[in-house]
Design brief:
This protein has helices at 3-19, 23-45, 52-66, 76-98, 108-113, 117-134, 137-148, 153-159, 164-168. The chain is an all-alpha fold and 174 residues long. The protein is globular and about 45 Å long. The model is unreliable at 100-109 (pLDDT under 50).
């Protein structure tokens, strides 16, 4: 067996033991997925979001609660990513409901004056995050999975229980 196959078998055993209620296996599984969950939540909320740590904890708890329903139709990492994206989008909606938001677009003339690529990239990421506030939840999830996490169309369709043609046509509804 190759190194990748051995690692996959080891993770499968860890997953099975965690689902069965083994606390040591659960801790190991959480250690394995928590950096990825934190990355996904940070990508959606932004690294400076005041509720980032709380949202990461909420995503980890949601992952633990969802383990018994895991159908193993994707990797554990992908499963954790989907849960993290859903949790982060929900947290974003809650934060939006509690506070006023900045204007949606950066003025055009300001974009043209700004020659700093890093600043422009920061503004683009902030714009994408603000889009999460405006889109229906299902479409926000598609945006997060497809553009922030790099899922293929097929993987995104599977994750949101939609057909690929629905994604291409923008027909995913909440």
């Amino acid at each position: 067996a190759s190194l990748d196959e051995a690692a996959a078998q080891q993770q499968d055993a860890l997953l099975a033991a965690a689902i069965a209620g083994d606390p040591t296996a659960l801790r190991g599984l959480l250690r394995a997925v928590s950096p990825e969950i934190a990355r996904v939540v940070s990508a959606i909320l932004g690294p400076r979001d005041m509720g980032l740590e709380d949202a990461v904890q909420e995503a980890l708890l949601a992952f633990v609660h969802a383990l018994p329903s895991f159908r193993k139709d994707c990797s554990t990492r992908r499963f954790a990513n989907r849960i993290a994206a859903r949790t982060a989008l929900s947290a974003r909606r809650r934060h939006r409901a509690r506070s006023a938001r900045d204007t949606l677009l950066v003025p055009q003339e300001e974009q043209h004056r700004d020659g700093d690529r890093a600043e422009l990239e920061r503004r683009r990421r902030a714009f994408v995050r603000r889009m999460f506030d405006l889109l229906p939840e299902a479409q926000g999830q598609v945006l997060a999975l497809r553009f922030l996490l790099g899922y293929s169309l097929e993987e995104t369709a599977l994750a949101v229980d939609a057909r690929k043609t629905q994604l291409l046509a923008g027909e995913v509804k909440a």
